[in-house]
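Reopening this ticket.

The earlier resolution said the output was attached, but the attachment link was broken on my side. Pasting everything inline this time so it's all in one place.
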Amino acid sequence: MGSFSIWHWLIVLVVVVLVFGTKKLKGVGKDLGEGIQGFKEGLKGKEEPPSRIGNDKHDAPSDETSRQDSQRKDS
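Inline output:
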């Protein structure tokens, strides 16, 4: 009662094909393949690791901006 034999898997495959039909299974397989391909392309498109996001100089306030802010608070 441990693992399934090849005959069990063949019976399951036949039942699935009878229930869903070959066209629907083919469409599901195609959609799944396109999804995996799109996911892989998305991973390849990343140029920098997520740990560096937001650490660029243009994201951080410059020294001049922080001086102006501190002068406004002092006034």
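Reporter confirms the inline version is readable. The chain has a mean pLDDT of 77. The helical segments are 6-20, 22-45, 63-74.
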